[in-house]
Design a protein that fits this description.
Elements lengths: L19 H10 L5 H13 L12 H6 L9 E7 L5 E6 L5 E8 L4 E4 L3 E3 L8 H4 L2 E4 L2 H15 L5 E4 L9 H13 L8 E5 L5 H6 L6 E5 L5 H7 L8 H15 L3 E7 L7 H10 L5 E7 L13 H13 L4 E3 L22
Parallel strand pairs: 4-7, 7-8, 8-9, 9-10, 10-11, 11-12
Antiparallel strand pairs: 1-2, 2-3, 3-4, 5-6
Helix pairs in contact: 1-2, 5-6, 10-11
The chain binds S-adenosyl-L-homocysteine (SAH).
The site of S-adenosyl-L-homocysteine has 17 residues, from strand 8 and strand 10.
Length: about 350
């Protein structure tokens, strides 16, 4: 399926983020033959070049003329590697802002965890990004660049992308949808291997659903009742659980795809047997999948991570209720690269 969505026009023109038809139109407007569009597509998205000057198949004179055209790549500010081989990148954008991206390798996959915003305005109580405040939305090319940066660094094809880095993707729908289209069409990653994770916002789930993508959609539920959810996620005050779940059902109807629910496990807070029973009741009959995320400690919060036995007990109750569950491995923990630990202590440098 082709994802059709206009690329937002509010950023200075850069080539990264353009589709093959757009690149072709761009070269033709410069008086070049159409096939040069295909060459740009290959070199920008497959080879991962950082400037037009590097595209040696293009005529030298024309490359020199286009010296001012930006591709839209970030620069590497810092990289750290965890013992489990997860790599965390601090990338500098053209305005000096810094964002974090994580590359998570396994034998079969290379997953990139991308940011959709610089910082995040949602201020979830357990998340380091939320403690650091919000700067701005990312542009399409700034999202796609993160994937290419990790692909180049690992010298290996990226198989999966999860929008679980900094930011709330549904506050930046036009750029996120356009980036998903580019990752699917130009970079060549299957839609089902692209995951968008959201805390859920009124009307935004429907807006996103109406793009009718076949990507994986995950909702950060984190609680089985309204009071607990409000304590963890301030914005939940304006978005009650019954409405959130109704919107998720509508998402399933519109897209034909099931919804995943993420549930962070905070020891003694929402990981008790009665919480699992309440969660099973809440999601009974819902075409869903529950991804349990043991809390990754951050300095600014004093929640505790559950023990493996607590985690297993919680999971058993859900499975006895016939709910499909999985447990997210905490990759990158030792390099502060795991879920919720992305902070970019200085968002601008
Ligand atoms: N704003 C989006 C995506 C970013 S976070 C969202 O809320 O879904 C991706 C996932 O990591 C979310 O489920 C988030 O709740 C979870 N997360 C945040 N902080 C965490 C922490 N300290 N430990 C474990 N998971 C965390």
């Amino acid at each position: 399926m082709v994802i059709n969505n206009p690329v937002p026009t509010d950023s200075a023109e850069v080539l990264l983020g353009k589709s093959l038809p757009e690149l072709t139109a761009w070269v033709q407007a410069q008086g070049q033959p159409a096939y040069r569009g295909k060459q740009l597509q290959q070199w920008i998205y497959q080879q991962g070049v950082r400037s037009l000057a590097e595209i040696s198949v293009l005529p030298k004179a024309w490359r020199a003329e286009q010296a001012n055209v930006a591709l839209g790549r970030s620069t590497l500010h810092h990289r750290s590697v965890a013992p489990d081989k997860t790599r965390k990148y601090l990338l500098r954008l053209t305005d000096g802002m810094l964002i974090e991206t994580v590359g998570i390798p396994t034998a079969k996959r290379l997953t990139v965890c991308v940011s959709s915003q610089v910082g995040c305005p949602m201020a979830c109580d357990f998340c380091a990004t939320g403690k650091g405040g919000f700067r701005r939305n990312l542009a399409v090319h700034e999202i796609v660049d993160q994937v290419l940066t990790v692909q180049n660094d690992f010298e290996r094809r990226v198989s999966n992308v999860v929008f679980m880095g900094m930011g709330e993707p549904l506050l930046n729908i036009p750029a996120v949808v356009a980036a998903l289209r580019v990752l699917n069409q130009e970079v060549g990653i299957g839609q089902r291997s692209l995951t968008v994770s959201t805390v859920g916002l009124p009307d935004r789930i429907r807006e996103f659903a109406e793009h009718r993508l076949q990507v994986t959609f995950a909702v950060s539920l984190h609680a089985s009742n309204q009071a607990d959810r409000e304590q963890l996620i301030p914005s939940a005050r304006h978005y009650k659980l019954p409405q959130l779940l109704a919107d998720c059902r509508e998402y399933v109807e519109i897209t034909g795809r099931r919804v995943s629910f993420e549930y962070i496990l905070l020891a003694g807070f929402n990981d008790r047997p009665q919480d699992a029973i309440a969660l099973a009741k809440l999601l009974r009959g819902f075409q869903s999948h529950i991804n349990l995320i043991p809390y990754n400690p951050i300095d600014e919060a004093d929640y505790q991570r559950p023990t493996p036995a607590q985690l297993q007990a919680f999971r058993d109750i859900l499975e006895q209720s016939k709910l499909a569950t999985s447990v997210r491995q905490s990759r990158g923990l030792a390099a502060d690269a795991a879920c919720g630990q992305l902070r970019a202590s200085q968002l601008a440098s």
